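Q: what does this look like with threonylcarbamoyladenylate bound?
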Amino acid sequence: MVNILKPNNINFQQCMDKCKNTLLDGGLVIFPTETVYGLGADARNDASCNRIFEAKGRPQDNPLIIHLGNFSQIKKYAFVDEIPHIEKLKKFWPGPLTVIMNKRETISNVASAGLNTIGIRIPDHFFTTKMLEYADVPVAAPSANISGRPSATRISHILDELGNKVDLLVDGGNCKYGIESTVILPDDHKCTILRPGAITEDDLKKIFEKVEYAKEGAKVMAPGMKYRHYSPEKSLYYCKPEKIEELYFEDNGKSLFIVTNQLYHKLKKNSEGKNIISIGNRDNPYEISAHLYESFRTLDSSPYTSGYIESFQEVGYYISIMNRLKKAAKQL
Ligand code: TXA
Ligand code: MG
């Protein structure tokens, strides 16, 4: 059985020591963040980083994000002073932002997948931020899921998938945002969003003259973008709420319907509604993102052969939610 820690006020220091020692010994630690759970190893250690790729079945050319506990730790691992507007960007840390920087030799080339850049992130979590600061180890970590599967937002998602492949697991509760960090590549004139997340285009426009999204299919800037992602095993389709309503009454209980509170109550009024789940208030994208991946997992473990999920208009943070939906599901 894998060792599971549940940090609290009493065992906090002990938990930090356990994580630090496991990382320094070359072990794999699964830890909570405000976005999704991470599968971490010492980013200076080739062998440990290799173990991450093996455990996840991750393609070797997809680099790992480097997690640190505070801003002053970055300079040991990356050329942070070169980054335009870093003084303003750092206000998002600790938080769901990953910034691509030129790397120093101190970080393993396995972690960076041979690139001369790395993504740096300072996660915001009551335990993990303090642990990373205290351990003073740069932690290379992708999301804690088998490659291609939805990221894990609570410990129960992880046990079956990765429980026997790691040395330590930290249970830090449910992840606040539920989707992965925003990954950006800043330059003097513009900021390119390689992966949208909870730090939005609008947030970045307050800092950069120009903000654009990396084009998929064009030159691959975030190598991870070319791979299949976040998908449930069963077929999932997304469509507008009006269409979902129509499909629901034609379906005769064969599929699972993943909807927002508003539609949930409407459908429930006119049916038994066993095959409907709600992922939150339609007007609250944070609630929706927090339950998105969990709903994919609910579909997979349900008796239903396929699922339908409500889509959203692409504005603000909903852009990030739709980015994941489009990768996980087919449009109807
Ligand atoms: O919220 C998150 O970012 C979570 C938690 C655990 O921190 N981590 C995460 O890692 O989502 P992962 O490995 O699943 O996704 C990392 C993404 C990939 O698309 C990868 O290609 C991109 O970031 N990336 C990492 N390093 C890069 C680099 N040097 N240049 C371009 N893209 C990079
Ligand atoms: Mg991932």
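The chain has a mean pLDDT of 95. The chain is about 30% helix and 20% strand.
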